[in-house]
Request: fold
Amino acid sequence: MDKARTLEMTRIKPGARVLVAGATGYIGRILVRELVARGYRVVCLVRGPRGAGSDEGDAADPALTDTEVHLTDVCDPRALSALDLGGPPLDGVFSCLASRSGGIRDAWAVEHRANRNVMALAQRSGARQFVLLSAICVQKPLLAFQHAKLAFERDLIQSGLTFSIVRPTAFFKSLAGQVEAVQSGKPFTVFGDGELTACKPIAEADLACFLADCLTTADRGNAILPIGGPGEPITPRRQGELLFRLCGREPKFRQVPVRVFDVAIPALAALSRLVPRMADKAEFARIGRYYATESMLSWNPEIGAYDAAATPSWGTATLEDFYRHVLEHGMAGQELGQHKLF
Ligand SMILES: NC(=O)c1ccc[n+]([C@@H]2O[C@H](COP(=O)([O-])OP(=O)(O)OC[C@H]3O[C@@H](n4cnc5c(N)ncnc54)[C@H](OP(=O)(O)O)[C@@H]3O)[C@@H](O)[C@H]2O)c1
Reply:
């Protein structure tokens, strides 16, 4: 029997019981709503009543309505092995876990070890498929969180579970950091001339649909799936021009040379040898340099360059739609948290 036919027979249809780790995160919350709307029985793992990373207190999270919520610590393998989910076995598992800080230790604790703990729970609970929210940037890994993500991707591929490793390009929210500044009359800041990188950003709701579809789409099983949004790739300068046009103002840019990172990174790295807690600051500077200089598009090894045409497109929402919405309604719900640079 060929691979497509085998996967066709094992599709996980609405009504099945699926678990979401990272259910309180930006994508996790939208994914949970999408799965509930499709008729899945959704089990959420959370570390606090409203997520320990949230500033919003203990109010019950409306995103988790109509789901089974289990409080646990995904970073503690003993807590997860003692966790009794009750009910019928799981059919599928999603992980939208991500380090909130992006620091080196936290990246390995969450992106690698916590995901391994969730994978062990998936295996113990009878799940057939594991859908991982990863990132397109792991194709060119230079940063701690990318190495941690890749280490887990390798573990997952070897696990025997049907895997879907979804590697999105930039989320819309990650391109929204300067909307309020531009709206209030400030210039749009770019690195270099603003044309050093490009991405095909994807709407969070479109990404949630893509993730949910992995349960029922035969060719998304045992696959690594880079995914971007619709339309042409966009550079930071074009993002700025778009924002100024929507605000009805003349474009005004502030250009920052990439070499600021080339000064900051070695200085912070040297300092971290004396003051270990500075290691994360050096890593944040490396993250900044990465996103200032690397495109969020598929890397084409044959031409040795990023390749927009080779980056699959998905969804219908455009960055222009999103900017219009934020300009009209503000950034509520788009909190960037510690991920400002990613
Ligand atoms: N931003 C982008 O443009 C972009 C692009 C491509 C890919 N990605 C990838 O997309 C993924 C998810 O992004 P996101 O914005 O949805 O993430 P997020 O909002 O930061 O959510 C992270 C989730 O992980 C949980 N978590 C983090 N640390 C934890 C810990 N120590 N113990 C228990 N739970 C923990 C959080 O729980 P709490 O609510 O309790 O903190 C939350 O549910 C990341 O892997 C990222 O690399 C992002």
Remarks:
- The pocket of NAP is lined by residues 22, 24-28, 47-48, 51-54, 74-75, 96-100, 110, 133, 135, 168, 170-171, 174, 339, 342 (CB under 6 Å).
